[in-house]
Amino acid sequence: MVSAPFQLQWKRPGAGACEPAALAGVRDAVPVVFGLAPLGLALGAAVADSHVSSFAGWSTSPLIYGASAQLAAIAVVGAGGTIFATLLAVAAINTRTLVYGAVLRPEFRGQPAWFRWLGPYLLVDPLFALVSGRRTLSCENDAGRRYYLGAGLAIWTSWQVMVAAGISLGPVIPSAVHLEFAVPALLVALLVPGVRSHAAFAAAAGGAVAGIAGVALPPGVAVMLAVPAGAFAASLARRWRTT
Amino acid sequence: MTTFYAFALAGLTAWALRAMLPALGSRISIPATIERWLGDARHAILAALIAGAVAEPSGGQVWFTLPPASLLAVTAGAVAASKVRSIPLTTLASLGTLWIATLVLG
To answer: Which of B49, B64, B72, B84 is the best mutation test for A, with the most CBs of A within 10 A?
Structure first.
């Protein structure tokens, strides 16, 4: 958590001034965009191979905007899950953005209302990583906002293009590649690096058990079972570690 | 059309979660226990989706089956993700292992 409140004030490390902040944001986002390219392309390919139409699948990029939540929504809807199950899956996966909001809340203080409401739409993992590591007390609020928007819009725009490219290229890939497995493969890539404690491992194990148990149940039920199963397993792990 | 409604509502939910605290400022606070559960929920959901994609329902007395080729592919992906923490390499490791395992195991 941020220890002391301050305004939205980011600048590039080592930079003497914050201007031009928007350009600095775009420049800092370039390596992030290159890193995200394979994920966007693979997500697009997974959309092309799913039971959801290509346009509907692509629409998750501007509507939901977030790889794991998009994958979850496509997986649940593609399996015939209900709207409620889709919402639950997306909400549960996006709960970490609540924490991002909590961490960045002091920086948003003092910003115009339109930015406090609309700016967080761009708040995904890479942008959080970018802006939360670029804080300083020496810049003005406007510069911080421009930096955030420059970086956020650069990542957002490239994400839309990459997913569309993946959808177009997906059908060209031969069936021997087992593209249908791209979704679980991507989910593994998103899950494993975040499992850094016994509690996180237990939560994942609880979720996996719920996922297997839900195989023979109506679509989406496993996701609903996973949340309490994961929380229960994680609490047990924490209790076990403290005794 | 239901698909679009589902995605649009999911998008609204995602945005609400991101915007809630920055927009409402200090009027909302999250207890530490809830914050911990939020972190746990993400891992649990992702793991459930992976397990659901790998496991297949079985018509017989067994509840489910876990195809060995898929299990190997997930394991290879998990190892790759923990070692190199790279999304493309993890995907490549999973798909490559599945391709080889399918050729070998049938």
So the answer is: B49
